[in-house]
Every structure is written in C-alpha cells, then in structure tokens.
Specification:
By secondary structure, the chain is an alpha/beta fold. The protein contains 11 helices and 9 strands. The longest helix is centred in the first third of the chain and has 18 residues, at about 40-55. It binds pyridoxal-5'-phosphate. Pyridoxal-5'-phosphate (PLP) binds near residues 95 and 207.
Amino acid sequence: MRLNSHPSGRHFLQIPGPTNVPDRILRAMDYPTIDHRGPEFNALAKKVLRSIRQVFQTRQPVIVYPASGTGAWEAALVNTLSAGDLVLMWETGHFASLWKKMADKLGIKSEFMGGDWRKPADPAAIEKRLKEDKEHAIKAVCIVHNETSTGVVSDIGAVRRAIDAAKHPALLLVDTISSLGSIDYRHDAWGVDVTVAGSQKGLMLPPGLSFNAVSEKALAASQTSKLPKAFWSWDDMLAANANGWFPYTPATNLFYGLSEACDMPSAKWRWRTSTCRSARASPRSRARCSASAISATSTTSC
Ligand SMILES: Cc1ncc(COP(=O)(O)O)c(C=O)c1O
C-alpha cells in the first residue's frame, strides 16, 4: 500500500470516531505552523480557551492537552487522587473497562459496579453504595457518559443527584469522549468535577487534542492529590494558560481547527440545545438492527 495515494472520491469514515472533519475545519488548519511562543498563537490560545468553555457548558477552566482521550483519562485521575484511594466505576462496556484498568495501574483501588453492558449507570445503586460508605473511603465516582462500544448513555445529572442524596463528598469524573458535541452535556449544571473529552468525535476535529474541564472542588482536590504528575499537571497548565501560554508545545494547527469548530454557525445552537445527533441516529439504527435480526446492544437512548 502506498501511503501517498488515495482512491478517487471523498473518503467517508463510517466508524464511531474519528469522525469526518468538515472542509471548513480542514481549511482552517491548513496554515503555516506558527511560533507557539509568539503573539499570534497567544491571541489564538486566549480565544480558544475562552470559547471552548461553551462546549462543556462551564464557566470553569478547560485544560487542553496535545494527547488522545486516554491522556485526559489519566490527567483526571492523577490530578485528583492519591495511591490507595478507592473509586467507584460503572461498567458500561469496553471503554469503562479500560479506564478501570488504568486506575488499577496507577495504584488506585477501583470498584466496578454494574456489568451488564446493555445498561447505563444506575443512580439508585450508586446512592445505596455511597450511603454504605460511612467512612467516605470512596473518593470519586467515574462514569462514561456515552459508552462508545455499546451505545449505552448514562444520566449524569441523575448520578450527581444520587451522590448528593447520599450526602457523600466523592468527586464525579465523567468521560464524554464520544458524547461531547453530540449529546446534550452540562458540566456546571450537572455538578461534574472533571469532564474528560477528546477532539476526534463530536468536536469534528482530527485526533490529537484532549480535555479536562475542572470544577473548583476538583481544583481543591488537586492540591492534596499525591499521585505523581508532570506532563498532566493542572497547576503548570493553568498557570501558563492564565496568560494564554502553554508549559510545553501545544498542537498549534489543531488549535486553528478548534477555534473554527467553536465558531461554526451551528455550534452555539448545537452545544446549547439537547439536539443530539446520536439520538436522531439511534432509533434508525435500532430499527435497522431489528429488521436484520441483529440484537441492538444498548437498551438506552440519549
Ligand atoms: C468513550 C471513550 N473513552 C475513551 C476513549 C479512548 O480515547 P483515545 O482513543 O482518544 O485515547 C475512547 C476512544 O474511542 C472512547 O470512545
């Protein structure tokens, strides 16, 4: 196979992600790479760091890493937790399992709830488990909002209410790698502490950027968390970001693309409403599955 040849016609991706990148975004990235310590990049970064907040529906800082979503998973864990901390994770499918494996590798104790890959996180079961945890050993609840491998969507607002009903101080960490920009998502209104996201799905960008949106409570936890962190350190990133800079080389041209994605005329409308491309697609997919006698995996829709 020759890597510089492409079949005629437009290459059309039909996988859960990376998704097709609109021409407008591709064109926006087709600029010469600029000096990331120069004034043009500084202006671009300030604009992007401001406008990305609307995508997460937050007034809080959003940290942007030159990394895939897996990096942002790690950043969420190492900035908020210490070795030996216990976290509750809900098993919705393959990606929830990978996140759990990562927690285990980092020396965090993880408790997997659920296990039926057709079903979303159960807020009542989470509330019950947290009520049992009188010592507050559980430091975080980790949920994959849209489990890409199964199409299962969990109700994040309901999980927050469950944590509050149990009067438990656990942080709420949410993976939105395949939901942000596709399914209604509200970091602030749903009381999420760390939202983990990636560029290559609902944001309509190529892979290469990932994100942590962080609540004040998460920032406070980062001051006492003891897991080792260097590249992923929120402190260094936020200190540099305050003036539109980065502690290391950012993915310069992807920033042009991200800026364009935030500016697209439909963007405000898309982020603000609960309009959901997946919701529109899922009844059709389900109907096609049953027509062809294939069992649709997920019992939920967004
Ligand atoms: C829900 C979810 N979480 C995590 C990941 C891992 O992200 P990445 O492959 O960008 O590292 C993916 C990737 O598809 C995903 O869909």
